[in-house]
Amino acid sequence: MVKFKVNFMTSKLNIEIIDDAEGTPGASRQYTRFRQNKDKFEKAWNDNRYISFEAASAALKEALTEENFKVVKLERIEKTPIAVFYLESMEG
């Protein structure tokens, strides 16, 4: 599972690995694939972040789904502009 933080007030997706998923089959492949598509994910986020957090999150989820990632959980850190996305690969 890939987990990363997004700061709603910045234009860059700051990938901070929260759980290195050591021992998870295919984890490094997931991180590599995520990083390869980072520009696409940032564009989805940036095109919508001034509308609302919800709009930006929805656009980002859609972009992630297109690249075979599933958002398992989304946590917004209370009283901060930071969210944590928990992803699973839908690759077979």
Write structural notes for this entry.
By secondary structure, the protein is α+β, with helices and mostly antiparallel strands. The protein contains three helices and three strands, in the order βαααββ. Strands 1-3-2 form a three-stranded antiparallel sheet. A hairpin with a 5-residue loop joins strand 2 and strand 3 (82-89). It starts with a strand and ends with a strand. The mean pLDDT is 78.
Summarize, please.
The protein has 3 helices and 3 strands. With 92 residues, the chain is α+β, with helices and mostly antiparallel strands.
Features:
24% strand; alpha+beta; 3-stranded antiparallel beta sheet; 92 residues; 3 helices
Draw up the topology in text.
Blueprint: E1 2-7, H1 27-36, H2 38-46, H3 53-66, E2 69-76, E3 82-89
Antiparallel strand pairs: 1-3, 2-3
What's the number of extended β-strand segments? Answer: 3
User: Any idea what the shape is?
Assistant: globular
The share of residues in helices is: 25-40%
Radius of gyration: 12 Å
The averaged pLDDT comes out at 78
Q: Which structural class matches the secondary elements?
A: alpha+beta
- Topology pattern, helix = H, strand = E: EHHHEE
- The first-to-last residue Cα distance is 14 Å
Number of domains: 1
Classify the oligomer: single chain
In spatial order, strands of the major sheet run: 1-3-2
